[in-house]
C-alpha cells in the first residue's frame, strides 16, 4: 500500500504558471480526478487514468479520490488556481471528517497560482495593500452573508477580489453586489474585470464602479475592486503600499 | 533598446514552487534586483549582474531597476512569494507614477505562490472560505487602521492571513493584535503559525487564540486565523466550503 492523494492547483491556465511540484505529482500519478475542464488540462499518458466529473459533485469526487488512494493508487485531484481557495481542498477534508479512517492517508495539498493573483499581476498591483477575497457564489451561503461581508470589507477599506461573480442560475445577484459597492465605495472606485487570465481567451477591462455592469463578468471572470487609494498609472492599476499616500 | 522589467515572485522558498514563467525570465535577465535574501536565491551565472539591497529601500530599488530597463537592460526584480502581495510590484508603480516616462517601458508582473497559500496548503485548507489578508507591519500605516480592519474582518467572519506579524522594532504590537482577536473571535478560534514554509526551517503550529502567544511569530511567520467554522480533522485544519456547516 503506497497510495497517496495530492490536491493540486493547476494555476489560472497557462502551462508556464504550473509549479514544478504539481508537474512532479502528475508525473507520478496513476489517477487524476477533477472537474471536466481541469482534467482536460492534464496530458494523457499510458498508465494514467483520467476521471473527469461534473461541477457541484465535489464531495462525491472527494470520496472517490480518497477511496482510490486508500486502495493504493497515486491520486491527484486537480483544481484550477489554488486548491485551497474556493476549490477542492476543503471538500477533501469534509470527506475526511465524515470518514475518519481517511485521516491516516498520505494527503498533500500542492499550492497553485490563484486567479486573483494572476489577474492582479496582469492589471498591475491592485491588491498591493490589505485585501479580502469573497466567493460570490451563493450555492453554499445565503446572500445576506455576502452583503454583510461586502459592507464590512468596504468600511475596512480593503481592496477586494471576487470569485464566481455571475452565473446563469443567478443573473441578478451580481447587479446587487455592484449596487452595494457603489453605495459603500462611491462611483469612482476602480474595478478590474479579468477574464481567463493567461489563456487565449484572456480579457482585461478596468472601469469605475459607475461604469461597471453585471454583464462584464461571467464564471471565468475574477473581479478586483481597489481600495480608496487605488489609482491608474499609464495602462496599469495599482494600490500604494502606504495607507497615507493619497 | 530592448530593455524590459519583470517583477517576479519566487514563491515561499522551495525551488519546486517557482513557476516556469519566472525561471524563464531569470534565464533571459541581465540584471537581478531585490532584497538581499531574495537575490541570494538566484543562481549566479556569467552575464548576470546581481544587485542585492537592504530592506526598506523599496522605492530606491524600484527606480534603479526602472533606470536599468530604460537603458536597455533585461531586469528582474525579485520578491519572495507573490510580487503583488506586500512586495515590490506596488513600489514599481509608485516609481512609475513619480516619473511618467517610465510608463512606456516593457513592464511585466509575474505572479508567484504567496506565503499564505503555501502555509494554508501545509495546514490543510484554513482559507477555504472567504478570507482577508492583512499586513501587520505598521511602517506604512497607523495601528488604528490595523485595529479597524481586524474588527471588521472578525465581524464579517472572514478567515484571516497576517503577514509580517512581528519585528524587533515593535515587539508589543502583535500582542495587542492577539488581544483584539480574542475579544472579537473568542478564545477557541484556531490559529496556525506557519514559519518559513517549504524551506528547511519550516515549522507549523496550530493553537487556539487562548494559547496563541506573540513569541510564536517572527518576521518569517505567516499567521492564519480561521473563521467561526474552522476546525481540526486529524492533523489538519480546514474551513468548510459551506457557511451553514457547523
Structure notes:
- Chains A, B: InterPro entries: 4pyrrol_Mease (IPR000878), 4pyrrol_Methylase_sf (IPR035996), 4pyrrole_Mease_sub1 (IPR014777), 4pyrrole_Mease_sub2 (IPR014776), Cbl_synth_CobJ/CibH_dom (IPR006363), Precorrin_MeTrfase (IPR051810).
- Chains A, B: Residues 5-212 form the Tetrapyrrole methylase domain.
- Chains A, B: One of its GO terms (molecular function) is precorrin-3B C17-methyltransferase activity.
- Chains A, B: This is Precorrin-3B C(17)-methyltransferase.
- Chains A, B: It comes from Paracoccus siganidrum.
- The structure is a homodimer of 246-residue chains.
- The first copy, chain A, has a 5-stranded parallel beta sheet, with helices on both faces. In chain A, strands 7-8-11-9-10 form a 5-stranded mixed beta sheet, sandwiched between helices. In chain A, strands 6-13-12 form a 3-stranded mixed beta sheet.
- The first copy, chain A, contains 7 helices and 13 strands.
- Chain A is α/β, with parallel strands linked by helices and 246 residues long.
- In chain A, helix 3 packs across helix 4 (88-98) and helix 6 (143-155) runs parallel beside helix 7 (173-185).
- Chain A has helices at 20-28, 36-39, 58-70, 88-98, 115-123, 143-155, 173-185; strands spanning 4-9, 31-35, 49-53, 74-79, 107-110, 124-125, 131-135, 159-163, 190-195, 203-208, 221-225, 231-233, 236-238.
- Chain A folds into 2 domains: 4-113, Tetrapyrrole methylase, N-terminal domain (Cobalt-precorrin-4 Transmethylase, domain 1, 3-Layer(aba) Sandwich); 116-238, 2-Layer Sandwich (Methyltransferase, Cobalt-precorrin-4 Transmethylase, Domain 2), CATH 3.30.950.
- Chain A is elongated, with a radius of gyration of 19 Å.
Amino acid at each position: 500500500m503506497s497510495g497517496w492523494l495530492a490536491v493540486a492547483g493547476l494555476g489560472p491556465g497557462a502551462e508556464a504558471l504550473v509549479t514544478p511540484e504539481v508537474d512532479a505529482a502528475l508525473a507520478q500519478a496513476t489517477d487524476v480526478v477533477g472537474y471536466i475542464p481541469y482534467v482536460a488540462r492534464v496530458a494523457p499518458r499510458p498508465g494514467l487514468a483520467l476521471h473527469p466529473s461534473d461541477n457541484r459533485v465535489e464531495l462525491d469526487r472527494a470520496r472517490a479520490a480518497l477511496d482510490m488512494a486508500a486502495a493504493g493508487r497515486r491520486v491527484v485531484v486537480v483544481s484550477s488556481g489554488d486548491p485551497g481557495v474556493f476549490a477542492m481542498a476543503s471538500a477533501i477534508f469534509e470527506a475526511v471528517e465524515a470518514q475518519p479512517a481517511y485521516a491516516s492517508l498520505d494527503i498533500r495539498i500542492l499550492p497553485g497560482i490563484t486567479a486573483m493573483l494572476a489577474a492582479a499581476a496582469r492589471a498591475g498591483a491592485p491588491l498591493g495593500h490589505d485585501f479580502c477575497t469573497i466567493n460570490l457564489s451563493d450555492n453554499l451561503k445565503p446572500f445576506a452573508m455576502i452583503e454583510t461581508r461586502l459592507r464590512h470589507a468596504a468600511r475596512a477599506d480593503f481592496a477586494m477580489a471576487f470569485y464566481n461573480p455571475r452565473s446563469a442560475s443567478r443573473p441578478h445577484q451580481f447587479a446587487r453586489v455592484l449596487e452595494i459597492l457603489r453605495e459603500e465605495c462611491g462611483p469612482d472606485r476602480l474595478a478590474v474585470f479579468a477574464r481567463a487570465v493567461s489563456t487565449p481567451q484572456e480579457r482585461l477591462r478596468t472601469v469605475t464602479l459607475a461604469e461597471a455592469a453585471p454583464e462584464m463578468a461571467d464564471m471565468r471572470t475574477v473581479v478586483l475592486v481597489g481600495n480608496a487609494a487605488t489609482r491608474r498609472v499609464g495602462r496599469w492599476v495599482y494600490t500604494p503600499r502606504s495607507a497615507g499616500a493619497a
